[in-house]
Specification:
0% strand, 71 residues
Length: 71
């Protein structure tokens, strides 16, 4: 499920900008985090926790934590 979400970020990023593939995913990720902050009424540069990210995206927290720990 996490891989499908990451793929959709890349597709959305490429459609929105003509940037390099890695940069497009980065831009889409930034937009997603900003939408989460907006919904939670956080400042623009505030941290988003894994729990907040998972609640917004409906991804299982254990799967996201495992993916983050692999790097």
């Amino acid at each position: 499920m996490l891989q499908r979400a990451a793929q959709s970020f890349v597709i959305a990023g490429r459609a929105a900008t003509a940037a390099a593939p890695g940069e497009a995913a980065f831009t889409a990720g930034k937009r997603l985090l900003q939408r989460i902050r907006t919904q939670l009424r956080k400042p623009a540069r505030a941290y988003v926790s894994v729990a907040e990210f998972c609640a917004y995206t409906s991804l299982p927290e254990a799967e996201v934590a495992a993916a983050l720990n692999r790097r």
